Amino acid sequence: MNEKDGLARRFDEHRPHLRAVAYRMLGSLSDAEDAVQEAWFKLNRSDAGGVANLGGWLTTVVGRVCLDVLRSRTARREEPLEAGDGPIRLPDPILSGPGRVDPEQEVLLADSVGIALMVVLETLGPAERLAFVLHDLFAVPFEEIAPVLGRTAASTRQLASRARRRVQGAAPAPDTDPVRLREVVDAFLAASRGGDLEALVAVLDPEVVGRSDGGTLLPSALRRGAADVAAQAIMFARFARDAHPVLVNGSPGVLSVAQDGRPMSVMAFTVRGGLITALDILTDPERLARLDLDGLLGDR
């Protein structure tokens, strides 16, 4: 094995971890893969022999690449998620069959990186997001994050602390019992398909938030309150009769498909205290077309 092959092998050992870092930073699977590839290019142009901790070095390199991407988005006014009633861009969902998360997805989904957490991360500023993701989710010391941001370790610590308060306030820990979660989702589906508004409202938190992302081709929407979200859910149910239970970022969700097998929507649920507190629906045809549906639709 020559030196270059050895370096490639060592890099591939870190690739799953690096993809997980980039996904949390960017909320896009394709952008995350691009960031990891850029890290490989940078490694090839560097003196790898002088790197004592390759994993740590690569993590900060990916963090710097992602920071540049986030700053570029902000400069072009392409904010992924708006807090008001304007355009909404939900993070890419990670789909798997019920109870069948593969090993690569397990790395991506470590630290309970559900859609609710990803949505909140999308609202953080680039520097806050980097400090929080690298330190709180991947235990990178502030002393190693600070140079990436051009700040002191103390200032970086303050950024992470501010981001942590926002995350904890907006996305408190959801329920985790998979059996109970599936029961709540099934009750939601039964009520929405049957047009039973009263039963639907009963499984929704009074302050539930419903977000739908249709991309550039379809309108996005933000709804608040059980009655409004329930009405939205019944409307979606009319157009998505063929629904399949899936895991969305490790939690029970629903994949709806057309008669020809094309995906129409992905629904992700956040459940706390036995009630649905957030419903996130991806209906963007361009992003749905890129989903890998192998093993998700049974014997279709």
Topology:
Elements (H helix, E strand, L loop, with lengths): L2 H24 L2 H16 L9 H22 L19 E2 L6 H6 L6 H9 L2 H12 L4 H8 L3 H18 L7 H16 L3 H6 L1 E10 L7 E4 L1 H14 L3 E6 L2 E7 L5 E10 L2 E8 L2 H4 L12
Parallel strand pairs: 2-7
Antiparallel strand pairs: 1-4, 2-3, 4-5, 5-6, 6-7
Helix pairs in contact: 1-2, 1-3, 2-3, 3-6, 3-7, 6-7, 6-8, 7-8, 9-11
What does this structure look like?
The protein has 300 residues and is of the alpha+beta class. It folds into two domains: 3-80 and 114-170, PhyR, sigma-like (SL) domain (Butyryl-CoA Dehydrogenase, subunit A, domain 3, Up-down Bundle), CATH 1.20.140.160; 81-113 and 175-300, Nuclear Transport Factor 2, Chain: A (Roll). Helix content is 52%, strand content 16%. It contains twelve helices and seven strands. Strands 1-4-5-6-7-2-3 form a seven-stranded mixed sheet. A hairpin with a 7-residue loop joins β2 and β3 (221-224). α7 (142-149) crosses α8. The termini are far apart. The model is unreliable at 78-86 (pLDDT under 50).
